[in-house]
Each structure stands twice: as structure tokens, then as C-alpha cells.
């Protein structure tokens, strides 16, 4: 397959996932889209470095993360909002409460310190394996496990502190 067709296929398959990942760094949708666009330009230039037998997402994710970090160093402004997929199999009222709960959890994840935030997002939201996260972040699998554990513990404490009194996130507390 030629480079252009390969790139087009990756863009079709991975753009939305990469935008969500970029968003966790830049916290503005248009900026996240720009970082992903910059990523695909770099990918096209460096396609010869990709080993065909591997899953391309971890490689693409690593490039997106690097693009976002470079943009942050240049002083890009951050805006916090939340994303969640719709759940069509439940009633609209339940869907609202579930979405609200997911928004709150995603907001809590976004407030984690960087060493914990990215592994949590890659593991739970992007469903990457420990090995893939290790490759993307260029850290050992043991460090990934440790950061996931610490990130979960911090999220649990925040969640319990915020919702202890009412017991459920959707009760308006």
C-alpha cells in the first residue's frame, strides 16, 4: 500500500481517538484537532520509521502526545470541558445521569497530575495495554502499573470526598 493510502486509512481509523487524546493535553477541541493534523503531517514525513507488523495507534499516540507537549511549551491556552459517548440503550433520563456522572469522572481524570493522567486515559479510555502505554510514554511497564494504581487511588479519594454525603454522583451533590 502506498504512503498516501496508508495515511488516509489511518486518518479514517484513528482521528477521533487521537483528537480525544490530544484534548486531554490541550483542553480545547479546535487546538486538539490542530495537534492531530500536525501529527498526521509528521506521520507522513516519518512513515518509513513505522514497522508494518505493529498496531499503529501507539505510535500515532506517541506523536500526538509529543505534539501537544510542544504546543504547551509554546504557551497554548487550556480550556477544560468533558467528552463522553452517548449510551443509546437506556432511557433519556438515565442517559442524562450516566452522562453527567461520566463527565464528572472525566473532569476528575483531567485534574490528575500529568504522570497519572495520561496512563489512566490511555488505559481506560483508549484501552491500550500496559505494554503499549509503556512504549507510548517511554517508561517501563512497572512504572505504568504504579502510575495507574496511584492515579486510581487519587481518583477514588476525590470521588469519595465529593460524593460521600449523597452516595451517588447524579443526585445533584
Provide the low-confidence segments as ranges: 75-90, 165-173
Give the DSSP E fraction (strand runs of 2 or more residues).
Answer: under 5%
Could you describe the largest sheet, including whether it forms a barrel? none
The mean pLDDT is 77
How much is the radius of gyration in Å? Answer: 18 Å
Structural class: mainly alpha
Write structural notes for this entry.
The structure is a single chain. With 173 residues, this protein is mostly helical. The protein is built from seven helices and no strands. The chain has helices at residues 3-26, 29-45, 56-73, 92-110, 114-125, 130-137, 141-163. α1 (3-26) packs across α3 (56-73) and α6 packs across α7. The relative contact order is 0.11.
Concise synopsis of the structure shown:
The chain has 173 residues and is mainly α. It has seven helices and no strands. 70% of the residues lie in helices and 0% in strands.
Q: What secondary-structure arrangement, pairings included, does this model have?
A:
Blueprint: H1 3-26, H2 29-45, H3 56-73, H4 92-110, H5 114-125, H6 130-137, H7 141-163
Helix pairs in contact: 1-2, 1-3, 2-3, 3-6, 5-7, 6-7
Descriptive key words:
173 residues, globular, 0% strand
Amino acid at each position: 500500500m502506498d504512503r498516501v493510502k496508508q495515511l488516509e486509512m489511518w486518518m479514517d481509523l484513528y482521528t477521533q481517538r487521537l483528537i480525544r487524546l490530544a484534548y486531554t493535553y490541550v483542553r480545547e477541541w479546535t487546538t486538539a484537532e490542530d495537534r492531530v493534523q500536525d501529527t498526521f503531517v509528521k506521520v507522513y514525513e516519518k512513515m518509513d520509521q513505522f514497522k508494518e507488523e505493529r498496531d499503529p495507534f501507539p505510535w500515532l499516540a506517541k506523536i500526538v502526545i509529543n505534539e501537544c507537549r510542544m504546543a504547551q511549551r509554546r504557551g497554548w491556552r487550556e480550556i477544560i470541558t468533558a467528552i463522553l459517548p452517548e449510551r443509546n440503550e437506556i432511557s433519556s433520563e438515565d442517559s442524562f445521569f450516566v452522562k453527567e456522572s461520566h463527565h464528572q469522572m472525566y473532569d476528575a481524570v483531567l485534574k490528575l497530575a500529568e504522570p497519572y493522567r495520561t496512563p489512566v486515559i490511555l488505559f481506560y479510555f483508549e484501552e491500550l495495554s500496559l505494554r503499549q502505554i509503556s512504549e507510548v510514554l517511554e517508561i517501563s511497564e512497572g512504572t505504568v502499573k504504579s502510575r495507574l494504581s496511584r492515579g486510581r487511588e487519587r481518583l477514588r479519594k476525590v470521588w469519595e470526598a465529593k460524593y460521600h454525603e449523597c452516595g451517588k454522583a447524579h443526585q445533584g451533590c
